[in-house]
């Protein structure tokens, strides 16, 4: 067995561990936070506010209409009470009444438009609430799948850590240190030789280097990328 072979096997384990750690982090982030749900929530909150504002606008207009009705009623009572003796005062009250009734008619149109805004904003808000429920349901379904994947990955991770421990324990310390030093700089520390070239950077290796890597009496580094070369 060449000196590089156990390091190559260690590299395979470490690469798989790296992948698992990355995926577990991705799953964790995806289970905590879902962009589709966030988006639907924001939209729904915004539309809720629009609807609440429409309802309160309509309410204010309705109060205006009631107070105008009261005023009209008061003026009419005054007009027909028989208490007004002066012609000028009578005309003034008539004018005031006409003016109030014009305002009231115009307010009716505004009220109708406000009622339509209330209905439209309620429909938009409900549509968005449905979209939000869908997004939450999809997320929950995804989470069930991801929880299972996460559990599987953690099991595999534990097994790999065990394998790594026994493998690393059998590697001479200087070799292991060389491996760790390269791994600190780049995730792939050991490159398999493929078609006479370094499998990582692609630089061609001399026949002497290939021979050394295969015979395995010493660790051979790729002259270009500095990785440990492994010749199967
Ligand atoms: Zn290389």
Classify the secondary structure makeup into a structural class: mainly alpha
Question: Helix and strand string, N-terminal first?
Answer: HHHHEEHE
Strand content: under 5%
**What is the total number of structural domains?**
2
Helix content: over 70%
> Please, what is the oligomeric state?
single chain
Radius of gyration: 40 Å
Task: Please outline the major beta sheet.
Answer: 3 strands, mixed
Q: What compounds are bound to the protein?
A: zinc ion
Describe this structure in words.
This protein is mainly alpha-helical. The chain has 2 domains: 4-10 and 172-230, no CATH class; 34-148, Helix Hairpins (Orthogonal Bundle), CATH 1.10.287.1700. The protein has 5 helices and 3 strands, in the order H-H-H-H-E-E-H-E. It has a 3-stranded mixed sheet. The longest helix is centred in the middle third of the chain and has 83 residues, at 87-169. Residues 191, 198, 200-201, 203, 222, 224-225, 227 line the site of zinc ion (ZN). Zinc ion binds at residues 191, 198, 200-201, 203, 222, 224-225, 227.
